[in-house]
Amino acid sequence: MKQVIDKWGKSFGIYLILMIVFPFVMPDEYYRSVGIIIGLHAIVTIGLCLVMGLAGQISLGQAAFWGIGAYTSAVLTTKYGLSPFVGLVASAIIPGLFAFILGRAIAGLQGYYLAMATLAFGYIVQIGITEWEPVTGGANGMISIPKVTFFGDSELSMYYLIWGVVTCVLLFSLNLLHSRVGRAFRAIHKSEIAATSMGIDVRKFKLNAFVVSGMFAGISGGLYAHYMGILDPQPFGLHESIKFLTMVVIGGMTSIWGALVGTVLINFISEGLIMMSEVIPGLQGDIDTIVFGAILVLIVMFMPEGLVPRLRTLYEKSQAKKAKAKAANLQSDQRVERKATT
């Protein structure tokens, strides 16, 4: 934790200030709801960053874990009368078990084959949710899902609950990144062969990353279910998985902060497109899919490392230039002083 504070203390302080003041700067209920959705997505994308940026895996089924978590908590609370907090615990455990089973099954796959396997899993889950009508309500979905009571059930209390979870997930991930496990993940990402030769159990670490990512998505899904109060299978398909993937790639796959920044950017772009579609009818429909696809292609072509790592590199270069110029000025002043004394 000390390493995290030393390296990211300033960034984390800025994050906390922005997170705390946002609902007061934007007191409108609509913008608070946007902030809540951003928080829910951030939990998923931080987990996906662990899988893609650290473990070097490609997952196109993240929305499936999101849906499993949402329906787990919704079913337990509406059909069995359990507390929403019990449902939220289960919404982390059950997707984690699914992630463990899937991770063991596809442990030997890489690249496109891994992506196709996770894509197939996503389709299976969405079809299962749709067809298991006695439990999930099928295409009609579920209603009357109870709210989570956290110092009340207002929009503001839900906002701070969700962003409190985001903060815990963020701290856990940053701490993991700077631990022995994080170093093993980075070695795997650079070269699995080299990591294996160093004695790292590549399959074990990949599986761990996949399970943690699934649990994060499940927690977010459970919170989503209790925030919305209703559920249907539509949000848990490929479109949402591609959206999560775009958020991570834009921000920077190797950066936890990048996942958060990418989530914020994509959600605001999405909201902007919705507002524009109200003015320009031709933008209605799947225009967001086209825009996100175009952004993804442009980022991969011109900024493959992502936005946050690029900005960090530029900042470090500018600091290095300043330090070099300062050193040169100091040497020049010293020469002048020596000449003056002689």
From TrEMBL:
Its main location: membrane. GO terms for cellular component: plasma membrane. The keyword Thylakoid does not apply. One of its GO terms (molecular function) is branched-chain amino acid transmembrane transporter activity. This is Branched-chain amino acid ABC transporter permease. It is found in: Cell membrane. The chain crosses the membrane at residues 12-27, 33-56, 88-107, 112-129, 158-177, 207-227, 247-269, 290-308. The keyword Membrane applies. It comes from Brevibacillus invocatus. Keywords: Cell membrane, Membrane, Transmembrane, Transmembrane helix. It is a multi-pass membrane protein.
